[in-house]
Amino acid sequence: MAESSEHQPLTEAVYYILLALHTPMHGYAIMQFTKEISNGRMNLGPGTLYGAIKTMLEKRWIQAVETEADSRKKEYEVTLIGKQVVQNEMERLQELVKNGKHITRGE
């Protein structure tokens, strides 16, 4: 039986975007947040960012935030489904680290 998409491993870009959107923000702010939180290692390009946003909107992991009609910047925020997706990913990553330590260090 196939797993639900909420339990599939996330790309690093999607993971960081979901983390960023725990606070509503627009695309450029998401790129800046991701670069900062990853200590400059993760540089999201516009194509990657907006492709991921489109996919996450379709999956209802994020939603557009109501803004003023004349605002050119569209803001997004994580939904309850998206928060659960992040939680599932953190648990998966913790399991990977735990198993790695168990094998490599005998912990």
Explained architecture:
The chain is mainly α. 55% of the residues lie in helices and 8% in strands. The protein is built from 4 helices and 3 strands, in the order αβααββα. It has a 3-stranded antiparallel β-sheet. Helix 1 packs across helix 2 (27-37). The radius of gyration is 16 Å and the shape is elongated.
Question: What keyword list fits this structure?
Answer:
4 helices, 55% helix, three-stranded antiparallel sheet, 107 residues, mainly alpha, Arc Repressor Mutant, subunit A
And the CATH topology?
Arc Repressor Mutant, subunit A
Helix content: 55-70%
CATH homologous superfamily label = Winged helix-like DNA-binding domain superfamily/Winged helix DNA-binding domain
The average pLDDT score comes to: 91
Q: In the CATH classification, which architecture applies?
A: Orthogonal Bundle
Instruction: Determine the strand fraction and express it as a percent band.
Output: 5-15%
Low-confidence runs of at least 5 consecutive residues: none
The arrangement of helices and strands along the chain is: HEHHEEH
- As an assembly, this protein is single chain
Number of domains: 1
The CATH C-level class name? Mainly Alpha
- Biggest sheet record: 3 strands, antiparallel
Write down how many β-strands occur, each being a DSSP E stretch of 2 or more residues.
3
Alpha-beta classification: mainly alpha
Query: How many helices in DSSP terms?
Result: 4
Rounded to an integer, what's the Rg over CA atoms? 16 Å
Can you tell me the overall shape? elongated
Q: Largest beta sheet: what is the strand line-up?
A: 1-3-2
